[in-house]
Design a protein that fits this description.
By secondary structure, this protein is α/β, with parallel strands linked by helices. It folds into two domains: 275 residues, Aminopeptidase; 129 residues, Aminopeptidase i, Domain 2. The chain is built from eleven helices and 20 strands. A nine-stranded mixed β-sheet has the order 1-2-3-13-4-14-18-16-17, sandwiched between helices. Bound molecules: zinc ion.
Length: 427
């Protein structure tokens, strides 16, 4: 348990972007003996073996291949690699009042206020050409506080504590340096050379870069009951899914799918609305009738964090549906199908939690007078036809630059996912 939490904190810290998260997940699978597969090549698959494949460097599918898929189906766990953040604009260089700043773009539903006055770094993927003129991409991570977004002093905005609204176009340009001549692309070229001394780029053509907070993930609370970090939504689920798959000794077909772009609607080649899962299933079960049969024997646990009831804002939850941190995985319901859970799939999870040492479970439904969010569950269910249940660990401050979850829930969710991968038959 202690080791898992330590590894989780290290994973969160080393994964400031979906690209880094995917590379780190791939490394975990590689170290555990999973064979990498390239979508551009034929796949020679063997029952009893384990594999993984990435797409766009920001999404990953990993699986243990069992036998007799049309009769036994898949046990699929889904999560997402992306988190709301600030990104560097394509032409970011700004010069104002003797300072160099970078223009930022928001990605997903960012909670903006917590981004002020943080020690920010930048990481992501840089694309360009090498000395031979070949197109190449490199991951970079400045890994030091190279930028900050200073807030306006309260003396200059006396109503800041009553009504602080944020205009990201005007108020969130990131302070990089005193005025400088070098443009941002040249800075990137230097950073690529520093991190990839044996494979530098000759020219930067484009980039996909996220700002992130330098504050490291930590155990928090008087008795370390909590863990606080950026990107718990949803790297927590990616990590726990990967741990469960790696340590599972199941003979069934067990799959982990981590998509990019959930926070912006999942519409992309790497998102849950894309073809990654179905393309992969077509390789596992090439015959379409047999694949159809496989899907009807399959089940998906879509794992994405849930809103824990906040002790200072408890009226934001329904009185009977206020999940607590450290009290077990949350089954998420929405009559309008913002979550894919239905009474059958929820019953399956409740049954699963009782097979062996009981795993505590909680239920969440939004207040009837508030709008529900959504996640990859309904999208993957729509796209693939697999029965799905949306679950997740409770957390505070979803989409903030620093989120908080429960340490005990790491064990509860890992146990649930491990049990799911090993279950002999999906009803
Ligand atoms: Zn999420």
């Amino acid at each position: 348990m202690h080791d898992t939490v330590e590894s989780l904190l290290a994973f969160l810290n080393a994964s400031p972007t979906p690209f880094h998260a995917t590379a780190n997940l791939a490394r975990m699978f590689e170290d555990a003996g999973f064979t990498p597969l390239d979508e551009r090549s034929p796949w020679a698959l063997e029952a009893g073996q384990a594999y993984y494949s990435t797409r766009t460097d920001a999404s990953i599918v990993a699986f243990r291949l069992g036998k007799d898929l049309p009769e036994r189906g898949l046990r699929l766990v889904g999560a997402h690699t992306d988190s709301p953040c600030l990104k560097v604009k394509p032409c970011p260089d700004l010069s104002r009042q003797g300072y160099s700043l970078l223009g930022v773009e928001t990605y997903g539903g960012v909670l903006l206020n917590p981004w002020f006055d943080r020690d920010l770094s930048i990481a992501g993927r840089v694309s360009g050409v090498d000395a031979e003129g070949q197109l190449q991409a490199r991951l970079i991570n400045f890994d030091r506080a190279i930028a900050t977004i200073p807030s306006l002093a309260i003396h200059l905005n006396r109503t800041a504590n009553e009504n602080k609204t944020v205009n990201p176009q005007q108020e969130m340009n990131a302070l990089l340096d005193m005025e400088r001549d070098q443009n941002f692309r040249d800075l990137l070229l230097e950073q690529v050379a520093e991190e990839h001394a044996d494979a530098p780029l000759a020219e930067v053509l484009d980039f996909n870069l996220c700002f992130y907070d330098m504050q490291a993930p930590a155990l928090t609370g008087l008795n370390r009951a909590f863990l606080s970090s950026a990107r718990l939504d949803n790297l927590l689920s990616c990590f726990l899914g990967a741990q469960a798959l790696i340590h599972s000794d199941t003979t069934e077909t067990a799959v982990l799918l981590c998509n990019d772009h959930e926070e912006v609607g999942s519409r992309s080649d790497a998102g849950a609305q894309g073809t990654l899962l179905n393309d992969c299933l077509a390789r596992l079960v090439p015959d379409s009738a047999a694949r159809h049969q496989t899907l009807r024997h399959s089940m998906m646990l879509s794992v994405d964090n849930a809103h824990g009831v906040h002790p200072n804002y408890s009226d934001k939850h329904d009185g009977n549906h206020g999940p607590k941190l450290n009290a077990g995985p949350v089954i998420k319901f929405d009559a309008d199908q913002g979550y894919a859970t239905n009474s059958d799939t929820a019953a399956f999870v409740r049954w699963l939690a009782r097979q062996g040492e009981p795993i505590p479970l909680q239920s969440f439904v939004m207040r009837a007078d508030m709008r529900c969010g959504s996640t990859i569950g309904p999208i993957t269910a729509t796209n693939s036809g697999i029965r799905t249940v949306d679950i997740g660990n409770a957390q505070f401050a979803m989409h903030s630059i620093r989120e908080t979850a429960g340490v005990q829930d790491v064990t509860h969710m890992t146990n649930l996912l491990s049990r799911f991968y090993g279950v002999a038959q999906v009803p």
